[in-house]
């Protein structure tokens, strides 16, 4: 199993107070690494016709008051997972792709 983490701050404020640069930085920080690492790993999985990917998203993709970029990036994680799962299924490969979405509740 391979994983990576990144320290980032996403509390930028509501969308009408956010800047283009902050939004883009949030997307890159929360989604860019996921894309590049997954792409690199997938190439080997497709060559071997076998692999397992478990991605982690967040219930934040449903929206949050403090940031626009972070929920957008978490939604991108879900979309990337679905894209990979559809490709693996359409090519009848033994590659499984899942995305877990933990949520905190009180």
Automatic annotation (TrEMBL):
Coiled coil: none
Name by which UniProt lists this protein: SDR family NAD(P)-dependent oxidoreductase
Cross-referenced PANTHER family: DEHYDROGENASES, SHORT CHAIN, SCP2 DOMAIN-CONTAINING PROTEIN
Record-stated family: Belongs to the short-chain dehydrogenases/reductases (SDR) family.
Swiss-Prot/TrEMBL keywords: Oxidoreductase
InterPro entries given in the database record: NAD(P)-bd_dom_sf (IPR036291), Peroxisomal_Beta-Oxidation (IPR051687), Sc_DH/Rdtase_CS (IPR020904), SDR_fam (IPR002347)
Record flagged with keyword Oxidoreductase: yes
Lineage: Bacteria, Bacillati, Actinomycetota, Actinomycetes, Mycobacteriales
Keyword set includes Phosphoprotein: no
Species whose genome carries this gene: Nocardia rhamnosiphila
Origin superkingdom: Bacteria
